[in-house]
Amino acid sequence: MKVLKVLCIAVMVSFAIILFSALTSFAAGEITKDDIKLLRDAAANLQQVNPQLAKQLNERADKVSAEQTRDVSEKLVQKPTPKITKELPSTVTLTPTKDFWLIDSPKEWPSQIMGGMRGGTQKLKGYEDNLIPLAGTKDALMFADVKTVLGASDTNEENIGFGARSLLFNEKLILGGNLFYDTKYTESKIRHNQLGFGLEGLSKWVDLRSNFYFPISGKQSISSGYTGYGFRSRSLVGINSYEEPLTGLDYEGGILIPYLSEYLETRAFIGGYNYFPSEGNGLNGIKGRIELRPVKALTINLELKKDNYNPTEFFVEGIVTVPLDTMNVFKITNPLGYVKDYLVYKKGIRPLRERMVDRVVRDIDVTSQPSTTESKVHDLTYVDNSNTGSSDGTLEHPYTTIQAGVDGVVGDKWVYVKEGSGNYKEAVTLANNVVLWGSGYNGGFSGLTTSGVYPVIDGEATRHYDITLGDGNTVMGLKATGALGAGIYSASANNATISHNIITSNIGTINNTVHLGAGILLVPDSGNLTATITDNTITDNTGYAMTLVSVSGTTLTTTLTNNTLTSNYGDGFASNGVITTDLGTGLIWASDGMGTGCYDGGTRTWAQAATWADGLDFGGYTDWRMPTIQELEAIVNYNLYIPTINRAAFPNTSSTYWSSTTLAVDAGYAWYVSFIDGVADYSLKTTTLCVRPVRGSQ
Q: Is the pTM here over 0.85, yes or no?
């Protein structure tokens, strides 16, 4: 329908230009047989649309025809018969005037190289526009037009077109048309293509022109993924951004400014533009410009534009025209031979014939418009304890407790918790596969706006755990505090993810096995427990930042990255008294220096220690080994002395421990660390020292 609308407008504009041509001719007092035929053709085309106007045009044509017949008769009567004083030869050879040319255009219509700059509100473009006459007669011209436009952010546009212009009514009117192929690479890194055609009527006093644009490339996505996200009543949506080339047209009419143009050829134009997207409101605007031509080589445009999408914009454009005397490479003598004439100032208005090679005026851009579509990413159930009305889990009517949200999940089981009006004073138990997401984190959805305030789940020093995990849970963007046991706890979770939370000020008693008041407590009671713990801030907990316990017959697998641990018991490590996890590196160590995992505190030679560690079955693991010197140095704490190691994480630590690293210059020696002062040194491998095995990546 948009294309049909533009085509209808095109037909109407065509009729307007034809009628304009006829009226211009009559106003000039020059009436020919072609004029009469033009009137009759216009009447025939308008017969169905406006019979009354068609009748008037036919009557006008009859009257003009009768007047012409009378004038011719009178001239024949008045003209004396010439006296023949010499006989014509018996054979006469007539040589017709040769007015058709190909490539080698006449001097008055040279090829034009036009370089231009157009600058306006935060926009600057440069271009080269080449108009090349191809063929014609003394009153008609066919040409090619090749244009390249360069803009900011690597944008560019290329246009190639063909057109025709004809001088009509004893050189009182230029009537022309053109067809273009346009291609543009936009700031969104997208290439659009379109076809365009234009109509123009130029005379001494009045100019009319219109251009029509039809995209041949469709709407294209600006990026391969979502460009943004948003909250909707029951879901999180992804926003796809597109750019669409628009079907449309522009048009303008102009007049020559009298008096001033005797010294500086000046024309004033007013027009508009209308473009039609596939969805939403069209782009509709008005424009006006002043065209100044001080010499033939220079054109200056001052333009104002305003439409329903953009504020008023002002543009200044300068175009320098350089003529070439021929495009026929076989006849080139002086390619720039006409330049001097283009630079000379001349009073008065150019003859209409010279305007046959004026530049084609059309939109410098392939006009496009951004658009968006939405698609659901996740179902959401909302929680906000500031809600005082009804509750159904929607964005408009959220639940007021987190447990109600968990119990009322829909779809793929995502619960979004807002910061609310105060702490959520409850213990939350998650069903399997529920994602619990707080407003303190954007969830990894780029461009999504959240408050950045962490909703607080408060155990009030009376509840053991703030959040208890099931299988497949994700907990993110929340603050867990005030629990007696741990902020986040699980005895059976598989594939749990704990990320971007604040876990702080959890309190409780401490014994030698499990440290209550931990930030995170994972203790599988049977089978396997796997968890990824990343990007959390764990601070000021009475117990360990993390207590990760694997008892006999169970397996605990954790991935720890980018967690910030401060002011917790045994900071930097999680221990159950049997094994200790370095929360920075993820390495797991034997804890007690006098325990089974450290050879009961005994000593061995380097080779004996290595063999013993490799065969150790301890703490539920069998992949133990002797640490490298770098790994052993990483658990030294130089803020402590005798021993220089965290006593809570590594109780009963002796003085010196072997590493697996051999001295590079003598294979009979190996490195060790003294935990009396934290110094690394080397000794003969036959020396007997303590051993603390480790497991994990090297």
A: no
